[in-house]
Amino acid sequence: MPKDDPAFSALLRLFRSAAWLDARFSPELGSVHGLALNELLFLLQLSRAPLQRLRRVDLANRLHTSQSTITRMALPLEKSGLVKREADPRDARVAYVTLTRTGRTRIAEAEATFRRMATDLFRAGWSDRDIAQLSSLLGRFTAILPGDITE
Amino acid sequence: MPKDDPAFSALLRLFRSAAWLDARFSPELGSVHGLALNELLFLLQLSRAPLQRLRRVDLANRLHTSQSTITRMALPLEKSGLVKREADPRDARVAYVTLTRTGRTRIAEAEATFRRMATDLFRAGWSDRDIAQLSSLLGRFTAILPGDITE
DNA sequence: TAATAATCCTTGCGTCCGGAAGTATATCGG
DNA sequence: CCGATATACTTCCGGACGCAAGGATTATTA
Question: What is the CATH code of the structural domain delimited by B10-142?
């Protein structure tokens, strides 16, 4: 067993951090806007997409989940009017998930509180340089992936 | 909407990275050692604990999951002999989860392949300094938490 | 000491998820 | 033009999870 293995510890800490942050943010996010973290990321992808819409396959790839999960997640969002179903005139197989006007305002509000939670998270003991560095390093993973939110 | 918000993008990228790495590592890990990623982290915690054992509550806190999940996860691991149940003579409420001898060898093997996957992950375009920096920055989150694997 | 509260674990229930199978449509090769 | 293959989506099924309730044991406090 290696004495010092930065790659190993970095990976472990990444998983631990994600699990911790998920457990920490989910309750507040759900109680404030009625959205699970997954749903926020779902809507965030749509808000960044051209025409505010995405095919279900692409959404699945961007969220690293299965197509069946997208189908199920879209249903309640449609029922609450945040999202609507659209057809593609060129290809009858695809069913776009499109952000509605109310969906846009809702995700804007949720994104605002999410940003506030993010800044609060780094308030204690993090310099601006630290945060930028962490974002940059993690960006090496996400840059490869489809749907990187670079703003 | 802020033009540049490093805290926001860092948090988003952290979640995206974790989801991607989970999807990437789980299949290989499962096929090679018959262990899910959660089970690997489960056993890893035990292997680092004094006497190779932990109370179920502590295990739940370290893995950021519920007690009922620990109860259910322990069952198949007991059946395959990687883990056994132990009582505390001082407190009849606790039921330790203890790593068995076969469990020790199994987690050692799985940890080895996990380390190899970790180094492979950073092979392209990452300097040793980058990896150490990422590990250090993420360590600020995990250092607060119980069960930090610092080796 | 006795009642109350706190802790540890398990079980039941509802929810969410991934993979396989099924349906519909599009594309490719002859 | 037509069969074969590929793609997009949905549905079904089994597994994994969190929460709330319950049972057992320990700690606290009057």
Answer: 1.10.10.10
